[in-house]
Write a structure and sequence with these properties.
The protein is mostly helical and about 230 residues long. The protein has ten helices and no strands.
C-alpha cells in the first residue's frame, strides 16, 4: 500500500510540476517545445505504469460497503463519462489546439457549452464512479489519484491557457465554463437540441455498452450490479 501511495503521489506531482508555469517555461526554454512534450509524455507513461503495477500488487483492504445503490450510481455516472470523453476527443478542444484555430472553426459545439474541459471531466467522473463501486483502499488510492489529476490538472491547464490565450481565450471563457453546466446555469450560453451531435451521442452510447460487456473479459469482474 505504501508503494501504491508513492506511485499515486508521483503521478499527480510529476504532472502538476512539469506543467507548472515557471518550471514549464524553463524546461521549454532549455529543451524546446517538442522535446519537452516528449519528456513529459515519457514520464507520464512511466508514472502511470508504476501506478497500475502497484495497484495490482496492493493488498485488498475493505474501507466501506459498496451497496447495490452505489454500484447502480456508478453505472449511471459512467454513461456521462463516456459521452464527455467521446465529445471531447471529437471536437476542436481548446486544451489541445491553438486557440486561433478553434475560433476559426465556427460556433461552439454543444460539448464545449457544457464544459470547456470535457475529457478531463469525463476522466474525473470515470474515476469517481469506480471509487463508489470499489470499496477497498487500493482502489480508492488508484482512482483517487486519477480524480485529483483530472480536476486539479484540468483546472491548472485551464488557468495556464487563460494566461497564454489573451483575447481569444477571454472570449471563449465568456461563453463557456471549466465547471460543467456553470455557463448554462449562469445564462452565459444556451444549450439546445440543435447543439447536440447525434452521431457523437451514438458513439458515446456504443462505447458505454462496449465497456459494460467487455468489463468482465478485460478486468475479470462484471460491471452489472444486481437489480435494485
Amino acid at each position: 500500500m505504501t508503494e501504491l501511495t508513492l506511485a499515486a503521489l508521483f503521478l499527480v506531482g510529476s504532472h502538476m510540476g512539469l506543467s507548472h508555469g515557471a518550471i514549464r517555461r524553463g524546461l521549454v526554454g532549455k529543451l524546446g517545445l517538442w522535446p519537452h512534450r516528449l519528456v513529459y509524455s515519457l514520464i507520464s507513461i512511466v508514472a502511470m505504469a508504476w501506478l497500475v503495477l502497484a495497484y495490482k500488487d496492493a493488498p485488498f483492504q475493505v474501507v466501506f460497503e459498496a451497496t447495490i445503490r452505489l454500484q447502480h450510481m456508478a453505472l449511471s455516472m459512467m454513461l456521462a463519462a463516456t459521452l464527455l470523453i467521446v465529445g471531447g476527443y471529437t471536437i476542436a478542444n481548446p486544451s489541445a489546439v491553438i486557440l486561433e484555430d478553434l475560433e476559426s472553426r465556427g460556433p461552439l459545439s454543444g460539448t464545449l457549452k457544457i464544459t470547456r474541459a470535457p475529457v478531463m471531466w469525463g476522466v474525473a467522473i470515470f474515476a469517481f464512479a469506480h471509487m463508489l463501486a470499489n470499496p477497498d483502499a487500493g482502489s480508492l488510492i488508484f482512482f483517487g489519484a486519477l480524480l485529483v489529476l483530472a480536476i486539479a490538472g484540468g483546472w491548472h491547464l485551464d488557468r495556464r491557457k487563460q494566461a497564454e490565450g489573451g483575447e481569444v481565450w477571454q472570449k471563449l471563457c465568456a461563453q463557456t465554463s471549466f465547471w460543467p453546466l456553470k455557463a448554462i446555469v449562469l445564462r452565459r450560453t444556451k444549450l439546445s437540441g440543435a447543439d447536440l451531435s447525434w452521431w457523437r451521442l451514438a458513439v458515446g452510447l456504443g462505447l458505454y455498452g462496449g465497456l459494460l460487456f467487455a468489463h468482465k473479459l478485460i478486468i475479470g469482474v462484471t460491471a452489472f450490479p444486481l437489480p435494485l
